[in-house]
Amino acid sequence: MKTLTNIGIRKQAQRFINSLSHATYELNGDEKQIDIFKSSIDDNTVKIYVYLDDSVEGEIDNIKLIDIDGDAIAHASRVFIKPSQKGLYTVFKYRFVEVEG
User: Which domain of life does the UniProt lineage start with (predicted)?
Assistant: First the structure.
């Protein structure tokens, strides 16, 4: 039996974070680009935070994580109506686990 150590799993999670470039979202149907707000690793769980501040207002849809190759690697297709008085966080959460095959 071959097993990844906790360090090995954490390194894979960190490599995932390091592969990210930015996020995109649609604002009233137009694609916009934004920096990733923050990321974290807790044990084997990765969280990527995208934050739209009070300068963004309107219908928000199709938030995506884009990697350094320019590929969309994750998306949230939920539609939000965002007022200018409030910010909007979207969190992408992934758990890294080893699966024997």
Answer: Bacteria
Q: Under DSSP, is residue 17 helix (H, G, I), strand (E, B) or coil? A: helix
Which residues are CB-contacts of 46 (< 8 A; sequence separation ≥ 6)? 13, 16, 17, 39, 40, 93, 94, 95, 96
**pTM, rounded to two decimals:** 0.90
Per-residue pLDDT reduced to its tens digit, 42-90: 999 999 999 999 999 999 999 999 999 999 999 998 999 999 899 999 9
Residue 30 CA to residue 14 CA, distance in Å, equals 31
